[in-house]
Specification:
This protein is α+β, with helices and mostly antiparallel strands. The protein has one domain: Jelly Rolls. It has two helices and eight strands; from the N terminus they run αββββββββα. Strands 1, 2, 3, 4, 5, 6, 7 and 8 form an eight-stranded antiparallel sheet that branches. The relative contact order is 0.22. The N terminus is likely disordered.
Length: about 150
């Protein structure tokens, strides 16, 4: 099962990490891993970024609205107009579609993003990476079902 019920009594990142089975977490770049789950009109992404390998997320934009929740760690969102906002565990953010933005990561940061409308490009890329992970470790069977 892709999502598991969090164990009672746990706190911090351990509580949230159980929602995404470890074998479903896939590297997507230097110092970055993700797990992706599609929905109807939305894409849910669990991200883990680790500095220094992934200390800077370059400025970019996408047409989808990106709303998120920092589960663990700290990051600073940066915008094209020079505005910055530092976010810590427990804080939420939203970035309107088409807004140029980037981020600076300190240490290890785990967060959940919801993209609306959904990101089929992320869903396809993630499934491809998950299949590659499965092929490289056939003894560790990973369900490829992401719905």
């Amino acid at each position: 099962m892709y999502l598991e019920v969090s164990p009672t009594g746990t706190t911090g990142i351990e509580r949230y990490a159980t929602m995404f089975a470890k074998e479903r977490l896939v590297r997507c770049g230097p110092g970055a891993s993700w797990a992706v789950m599609p929905g109807e009109g939305v894409t849910l992404v669990y991200w883990v970024f680790e500095a220094p390998a992934c200390g800077e997320l370059s400025m970019h934009s996408h047409p989808e609205t990106q709303s998120g929740h920092v589960l663990d760690g700290e990051m600073t969102l940066r915008y094209a107009d020079g505005t910055e906002r530092t976010l810590s565990a427990g804080e939420f953010y939203t970035i309107p579609g088409g807004t140029l933005h980037g981020a600076t990561v300190r240490g290890r940061v785990a967060l959940i993003d919801v993209y609306t409308p959904g990101r089929p490009d992320y869903e396809e890329r993630y499934l491809f990476s998950l299949r590659a992970k499965q092929a490289s470790a056939p003894h560790a069977r990973v369900s490829l079902e992401i719905r």
